[in-house]
Amino acid sequence: MTQPAQRDHGDPAPTPLDEILVSRPVERALLEIAVSLQVADSRYEAANRAYRSVGEWLQRPASTLQDLEPEVTLQGSFRHGTTTSPISQEDDHDVDLVCCVNLGKSYCSQEELKRLLGVELDAYARAHSMSGPEEGNRCWTLIYADGARFHLDCLPAIPDANAARALRAARGLSADDANTTIAITDRRHPFYSTPSSDWLQSNPEGYATWFHARMVRVYEARREALALESRATVEDIPRYRIRTPLQMAVQILKRHRDVFFGEDGEHKPISIILTTLAAHAYDEQTTLPAALLAIVEHMTDYIEHRDGIDIILNPSQPTENFADRWALEPVRKDAFYQWHDAITADVRRLLVLERREDIDSLVRELFGRSVSRRIDENRRDHSQTGDLRGWARRFNPRHRQAPTWPLAKAGEVQIAKITVARDKFRHRTYRSGGSPIPKKSRLSFEATTTVALPYDVYWQVVNMGREAADRSQLRGGFDGNGSGRGGLRRAESAEFTGIHTIECFIVKDGLLAARSGRTDVNIR
Fold it and tell me: What is the pTM of this model?
């Protein structure tokens, strides 16, 4: 950002849900919910060890599958970083794997491929003192010991890129992501027991790539910041340690859904629908409140309606409709829209609260007692409280200067309103960490304070990214903005692509009386 000449602003446009300013107690509550839902790093590490162990077993010299070049990869919520802690302490995590072997459809049936994998998984289970694999319609399930608290769902598959390209060409669809398409087994399939070219297709690798692309700019920025904070290289930071607002928002949606439907889980919206619609609606917001509000507001915009049929396409498999069961079972469609109405109303209820007691009560109602209990435990546990601070922490580059005024808190200050102006466009309100704004936009920041006059106002702008660095405009110091209420307004210009911050400081009698906390400004 750079400081422009002062300009007048027109009347701001009406504020939609995803641009409402969220109070700090509510923002903190959302972060506490996200932390309480997060699976411990040790669980991710255990799941990674387990799936790699299965892959190494299938590739060992004595494996009956070794000549077929088996490859085991993660898929599902563990791959996407959207796994949530179980509601009940008795529940396990599902860890989804794809076991892909280099074999053609003409050489075996789905049943034969599944049997081949089952034989090896049974030998793996015996070698590791586990119970034998359990057969499902599509996959084999390996149950780990009670202490592990997870099980592996292993899906047999073969590469199917050629068939995917032919099918898409016949339907006039793009061949993007076709190279990662696989054919999978399903014992409900009419040709399950006989060799056939007609197999079900899937593309978990393509989906994972698409999902990551929806958040890649924010993901990479957070990974770089965590590497800087840890004094490590970016490559040293495991993927599971990065939590973007999109991933946290998906976790919150999933837990709200689970509590909303309670024991009646048969017709609740499946997770892949929530994840897909959320990723579509996400627009690189850098804070959890901004991301969650935008997703709730816009996720239904990405449901297509054709000839009375609702369609939620798999972004990596355009021949697949995630909502295909809605036409056959309208109760599933009704359940989705009932849930979406509920979470929209519940988010609005949460936004207007200010007292911690009221917020805690509503969180317990909406997300269940297990979340509420974990939040209470985290507040008592200093290490977990530190973890929350880490999640909430914005980027902390070396060029950000620390305030030198002695601290003597005398009130509060907050950046209450941010206005974005562009030539030939209506002025609009912006919220911290919201959707990226275009370069060359003009920004106006308005702060409010409870500190009694007289006082001086300082603003700190910290730019990030290569563009600002190349122009020697990283900034990071303190700009005096005048005394009294006149200094509570600040004008800047969006000049550099990146995720930047601005903070307001109130200095009274040479002492730091209040600081606003950092506001994210996302420029594309």
Answer: 0.85
